[in-house]
UniProtKB/TrEMBL annotation, chain B:
Keyword Transport: yes
ABC transmembrane type-1 domain ranges (all copies): 207-414
InterPro entries per the UniProt record, alphabetical: DUF3333, MetI-like, MetI-like_sf, Phosphate_PstA
Its membrane topology: Multi-pass membrane protein
Transmembrane segments: 25-45, 203-232, 252-274, 280-302, 395-417
Lineage of the organism: Bacteria, Pseudomonadati, Pseudomonadota, Gammaproteobacteria, Pseudomonadales
Chief place where the protein resides: membrane
Protein name: Phosphate transport system permease protein PstA
Length: 295, 425
């Protein structure tokens, strides 16, 4: 019995050691200054202008005074350890946090010089402009056609059936899915493979012709081949859309993004050109993270 | 090494113990299921054993001479004469033909009691329809008296013969041998309302009453229940007041059904002045009783819709209303319907609240609308089960079989709907 007990204890120790991310001599808090981001967080004529953004879940502060510009038609990747607030921050950009009662957002969040959190702002219109792709592929349990057509239908973007058909075809082509599904548009979407489902979700997002696409770890549930396809797609889409992508895979960030933002415990630590972040980061924490010393 | 071996030993011993525990646990489970199954088998054998005779009717076929002189009737189209005429006489004569030795007045009366009490009405109805048949001889099929029917159906059981005199038993035996008295499928049971005479009583009135009541219940409880569930789940703010409502709904689900009957009596009859014992009233009361069940199961169904679907719809800019109507409600519908059907099955078997609002009345006519007096299946069974005549016992059991088959159908429908409409994501 003794031996068994000791095994259990040692197990717990390992888990704890795993949960504490910092192996640096200095605790992480001391080397981050609140509201200060190293690198180049600002841009000229940005799509999103975000200043001193704070997000609260009840009493706890999940995002601490983040300021960032997101340029037009750039692909920006948010990286950082689990629980660092990158998804929370992403969801502020199209107010997906609204449905969480205890969540409140402070600061200045502008999309094309319009306040996102203006109480008079119509969130439906905002989301039509800022689309979102989620971590887990979440097609509606309807046909492939209806999945893509849903957005245009509710926004009244197509008056005739033929217009709608065009939008669906165009979106599926852009998502690189047309050739695979053109013969079975009436088939149910949930019968597709995970990778196809995720590309369908991307097609669904671009069907309402948004200006920005937010992607919350879009490849974390996909195998490498499907991931490669989605990444290819992101590269193609970057010509016409502004893309914000949250990812856990640093290789992915390195492959698809122009700029990379490193988040840590609710702070935005560093924003730089992707090449720079992965070769010579300005901040020690970024370096520790990308070299795999924690995460 | 020794340490390791002893550890393996400990593990092995504990394994043995664990397996024993597991076996014991499985045994408990199997015993419980076996007891449940056994009770079910006993219940069904008892009901079917008692009730199958309810689906059999006993008739006697007689050559009836429609002799006007005997019936004190010379014009069958004359209503006054018809109401005074003696239609029992031809039946006695016809029976007497089989037993010419019976002459005494007392014996004749006993003989005449073999035919059902509605036999004379049958002759009256025939003559009312076709007055020209007066004076002819007709071969007619009459229902036998309840006591005879029970005696014939349970020929091997002396307990069922006590209501007939020995003389009557002899006559019946002889008539059965001659083929005059015969048994057949009880179409009467399925085509008539209640009656004071068991062999003449049917369940159709109760079935129609139950259906009408259920329609009212469904039409009220389903939309209101689903709407309440959707509102509470999707739109209502989370505060003390909604908590209070939630607690109350859960409490209502546990309130004894007779309380709902009292409520119906006080509010629907007392305040709104609805007529008693009508399907509308029963439906309203049962709807109130079923609402908590429907609300609770609908809320569970709505909760089980994955949040990813909501997010997907919100992410492309669907409004709250669109998210709910286009995605949440359709996906929750199978669960909602299952809950509602189970609630309806519960309502179908409910007796207590209906007793209080007068649906326990003796009603012969088959109800023809939501506002005509009616009774329902469980109440009909209750009425028959509490009647003295032996014939009603088998009718009660037969009624239970009908009720059970309705419930099994409804539950099967619920399962089928769930399987059919369930979508995977």
């Amino acid at each position: 019995m003794n031996t068994m007990n000791s095994t259990v204890t040692s197990n717990t120790e390992t888990t704890e050691a795993h949960a504490v991310p910092v192996q640096d001599e200095r605790p992480a808090e001391t080397i981050i200054q609140e509201g200060v981001t190293v690198g180049s967080p600002y841009a000229d004529d940005p799509k999103f202008k975000l200043r001193d953004v704070e997000v609260f879940y009840g009493e706890s502060r999940a995002i601490k005074k983040i300021s960032l510009d997101i340029a037009r038609n750039e692909v920006i990747a948010f990286i950082g350890p689990s629980g660092c607030g990158k998804s929370t921050f992403l969801r502020c950009l199209n107010r997906m946090n609204d449905s969480i009662d205890i969540c409140s957002v402070k600061g200045e969040l502008m999309l094309d010089d319009q306040n996102i959190y203006d109480p008079k702002r119509d969130v439906v219109e905002l989301r039509a402009r800022v689309g979102m792709v989620f971590q887990k592929p979440n097609p509606f349990p309807k046909s492939i056609y209806d999945n893509v057509a849903y957005g245009p239908r509710i926004h009244g973007l197509a008056n005739r059936k033929s217009d709608l058909d065009d939008i669906v075809e165009d979106s599926l082509r852009k998502a690189g899915l047309w050739n695979e599904v053109k013969d079975r548009l009436a088939a149910t979407a949930t019968g597709m493979s995970g990778g196809q489902q995720q590309r369908l979700c991307i097609a669904r997002a671009i069907a309402v012709s948004p200006e920005v696409i937010l992607m919350d770890e879009p490849c974390s549930a996909l195998d490498p081949i499907a991931t490669a396809k989605v990444e290819e797609l992101i590269a193609e889409m970057s010509e016409s859309y502004t893309i914000v992508i949250v990812t856990h895979s640093m290789q992915q960030a390195a492959r698809v993004s122009n700029r990379t933002a490193y988040f840590h415990l609710g702070h935005l630590v560093e924003v730089n050109e992707t090449d720079k972040v992965f070769t010579s980061p300005d901040h020690e924490l970024t370096e520790s993270y990308i070299t795999g010393r924690f995460g | 090494m020794t340490d390791q071996r002893s550890q393996a030993e400990i593990v092995r011993q504990s394994l043995k113990r664990r397996y024993r525990k597991e076996r014991r646990f499985r045994l408990y489970g199997m015993t419980a299921i076996a007891i449940a199954l056994l009770s079910l088998v006993v219940l069904f054998t008892d009901i079917i054993g008692k009730g199958y005779t309810g689906f059999i009717k006993t008739t006697m076929t007689l050559e009836v001479v429609l002799d006007g002189e005997q019936m004190y009737l010379d014009d069958a189209s004359d209503k006054d004469q018809m109401s005074m005429a003696d239609f029992q006489a031809p039946i006695i004569t016809a029976l007497q033909k089989h037993f010419p030795e019976v002459e005494e007045r007392k014996d004749l009366r006993e003989l005449s009691r073999l035919a059902g009490s509605y036999a004379s009405n049958q002759i009256k109805d025939l003559l009312a329809r076709q007055p020209e048949l007066l004076g002819t001889t007709q071969t007619m099929e009459f229902l036998v008296h309840d006591t005879v029917s029970v005696y014939v159906k349970h020929a091997d059981n002396p307990a069922y013969s006590i209501r007939l005199s020995e003389q009557q038993q002899r006559w019946v035996d002889e008539l059965v041998e001659k083929g005059v008295v015969d048994t057949g499928f009880n179409d009467v049971f399925f085509s008539r309302g209640d009656s004071r005479e068991p062999s003449n009583a049917g369940i159709l009135g109760a079935i129609v009453g139950s259906l009408l009541t259920m329609v009212v219940t469904l039409v009220i409880a389903f939309p209101v229940g689903v709407a309440a569930a959707v509102y509470l789940e999707e739109f209502a703010p989370q505060n003390k007041f909604t908590d209070f409502i939630e607690v109350n709904i859960n409490n209502l689900a546990a309130v004894p059904s007779i309380i709902f009957g009292l409520l119906g009596l006080a509010v629907f009859i007392g305040v709104f002045g609805l007529p008693r014992s009508v399907p509308v009233l029963g439906g309203l009361v049962l709807a109130l009783m079923t609402l908590p069940t429907i609300i609770i199961s609908s809320r569970a169904a709505i909760k089980s819709v994955p949040p990813s679907i909501r997010e997907a719809a919100e992410g492309i800019g669907a409004s709250k209303m669109q998210v709910v109507l286009h995605h949440v409600v359709p996906l929750a519908m199978p669960g909602m319907m299952t809950g509602s059907i189970i609630g309806m099955a519960q309502a179908l078997g409910e007796t207590a609240p209906l007793l209080l609002i007068g649906m326990v009345a003796f009603i012969v006519e088959i109800p023809d609308g939501f506002f005509s007096s009616a009774t329902v299946l469980p109440v009909q069974i209750y009425l028959w089960a509490s009647s003295a005549e032996q014939g009603f016992v088998e009718l009660a059991s037969a009624g239970i079989m009908i009720l059970l088959s309705f419930m099994i159908t409804m539950n099967a429908l619920a399962i089928w709907l769930r399987k059919r409409l369930e979508r995977r994501w």
